[in-house]
Design brief:
This protein is an alpha/beta fold. It has two domains: 223 residues, Aldehyde Dehydrogenase, Chain A, domain 1 (3-Layer(aba) Sandwich), CATH 3.40.605; 188 residues, Aldehyde Dehydrogenase, Chain A, domain 2, CATH 3.40.309.10. The chain is built from 15 helices and 18 strands. Strands 10-13-14-9-8-15-16 form a seven-stranded mixed beta sheet, sandwiched between helices. The protein has a six-stranded mixed beta sheet with strand order 5-4-3-6-7-17, sandwiched between helices. Strand 11 and strand 12 form a beta hairpin. The longest helix has 27 residues. It is globular, with a radius of gyration of 25 Å. The structure holds nicotinamide-adenine-dinucleotide. The site of nicotinamide-adenine-dinucleotide (NAD) has 28 residues, from helix 7 and helix 8.
Length: 458
């Protein structure tokens, strides 16, 4: 079937109205949940083959998150889909107003490779809950997972409702030539611009879940052991290939030495003396990404790690000191297991620096100081702010997940996912009871009367 045919079939299916039925949506969400549970081992295997992730890590960062999202959607679907009454100005009475959530239609979801299951299926949950048909395009760089996604979807859903298109840039671009009612894209900033341009030609609304550099400020008022553990985990999980990984540290000078010692201890605790042989430490996705990252090791002073193995796309968990903002490692999103450290003496410096750069997808602050927490929240802008933790906010269904400025447009997870794929239609109803003629021409002589009636607080 050509892409045009898939879209055409989905459009026809959407027009039957089946997806608008809330019971249909419940059923599809339950089907999705069931098949994810059934395929859990196959998913674990596929992600291991693509990214060398342990089963435990895939459970924590992929399957359990999706299952929780499905549960959350099932629990709240009735409330989300219910039309909400809106107030009507007394001058327009008798009348009533309501806001009706309605599905958008046929949507396209394009995913990246780094959390290859979660980042395709979590938007799909929002799309199903909101009553849409969907075409999924997983990343070609995680081929084993892409195949499993295809198998799961083919087994569970009619392609006229949900379909998977496998392939790379070419497939993606051919899909973009079709008309969709929404495009949900997760990936890098440069491809995000291409998606936005393609969507603009068809006037298609978009969600862009992008990346960028997420800074991590560490104040001196912390529990060093806990902070080090949470930073090390967030940075090196999935070998640093997380869109919300702490990209670099901005550390208070007074705490730097003890923090770095604690991070070193954590790396050893997590991955042993030789992370290359740890079942808990991942690999980079491709030769290209490996080579890009190896070049970033050439500047600054490597405090720990730095070992590489090109045949396995392996880079050890690495911490780099004496880094300047002119160094390549600070010029681009790292998206790998390299943690540059920059020290500050006054927090104002750190805040000014963050505000002089593109708005990050996540900003992290480690500090016990409530005033500082408040200050960073008020004086900076980011997709999310994590205080004394990293990455965790992405697993909370009640928190919208998305960027701001260069880090993205729109959000999802939980209700935000439902909203992304929903149009809130305003419905205004007037009975035939009365019809005041003052609203209609001829208007001569009515102005002062209209002013008195309609001007607020007159
Ligand atoms: P990418 O932008 O290279 O690819 C993403 C998807 O776009 C893939 O499916 C790919 O096939 C497709 N694609 C690539 N080039 C294209 C083109 N020219 N035209 C049309 N489609 C194209 O991203 P990636 O390398 O898979 O992922 C890494 C990036 O994604 C990082 O920047 C990371 O921060 C970001 N990311 C963001 C989030 C988030 O939730 N905000 C999550 C994960 C990754």
């Amino acid at each position: 079937m050509s892409f045009a045919e898939i879209v055409h079939k989905q459009r026809n299916f959407f027009l039957t109205g089946h997806t608008k039925d809330i019971n249909f949506r419940f059923k599809q969400l339950k089907t999705l949940k069931k098949v994810i549970i059934e395929y859990e081992q196959a998913i674990f295997q596929a992600v291991k083959q693509d990214l060398h992730k342990s089963f435990e890590e895939t459970f924590l960062t992929e399957t359990v998150l999706i299952l929780k999202e499905i549960e959350y959607a099932i629990k709240n679907l009735k409330a989300w889909t219910k039309p909400k009454p809106a107030t009507v100005p007394f001058q327009l009475l008798p009348a009533s107003a309501k806001i009706h959530p309605e599905p958008l239609g046929v949507v396209l979801i394009i995913g990246p490779w780094n959390y290859p299951i979660q980042l395709i299926i979590a938007p799909l949950i929002g799309a199903i809950a909101a009553g849409n048909c969907a075409i999924l395009k997983p990343s070609e760089l995680a081929p084993h997972t892409s195949h499993i996604i295809k198998e799961i979807i083919v087994k569970s859903f009619d392609p006229a409702y949900i379909a998977v298109v496998e392939g790379g840039v070419e497939a993606s671009q051919q899909l973009l030539a079709e008309k969709f009612d929404h495009i949900f894209f997760t990936g890098g900033i440069s491809v995000g611009k291409i998606i936005m341009e393609a969507a603009a030609t068809q006037l298609t609304p978009i969600t862009l879940e992008l990346g960028g550099k997420s800074p991590c400020i560490v104040d001196s008022n912390i529990n060093t052991e806990y902070a080090a553990r949470r930073i090390t985990w967030g940075k090196f999980i999935n070998s640093g290939q997380s869109c919300i990984a702490p990209d670099y540290l901005l550390v208070n000078k007074n705490i730097k030495e003890s923090l770095l010692l604690a991070i070193k201890k954590c790396i050893q605790e997590f991955y042993g003396n030789n992370p290359a042989s740890s079942p808990n430490y991942g690999r980079l996705i491709s030769q290209k990404h490996f080579e890009r990252l190896v070049k970033l090791l050439n500047h600054g002073h490597i405090l720990m790690g730095g070992e590489t193995n090109s045949s396995e796309y392996y880079i050890a968990p690495t911490v780099i000191d004496n880094v300047s903002f002119a160094d390549p490692v600070m010029q681009e999103e790292i998206f790998g297991p390299i943690l540059p450290v920059i020290e500050y003496t006054d927090i104002t410096e750190a805040i000014t620096l963050i505000n002089s750069r593109p708005k990050p997808l996540a900003l992290y602050l480690f500090s016990n100081d409530k005033n500082l927490q408040q200050r960073v929240c008020l004086e900076t802008s980011s997709g999310a702010l994590g205080i004394n933790n990293t990455m965790m906010h992405s697993g909370i269904s009640s928190l919208p997940f998305g960027g701001v400025g260069d880090s993205g447009i729109g959000s999802y997870h939980g209700k935000a996912g439902f909203d992304t794929f929903t149009h809130y239609k305003s419905v205004f109803y007037k009975p035939f009871l009365l019809d005041f003629k003052f609203l209609y021409p001829p208007y001569e002589g009515k102005l002062s009367w209209l002013k008195r009636l309609l001007t607020p607080n007159s």
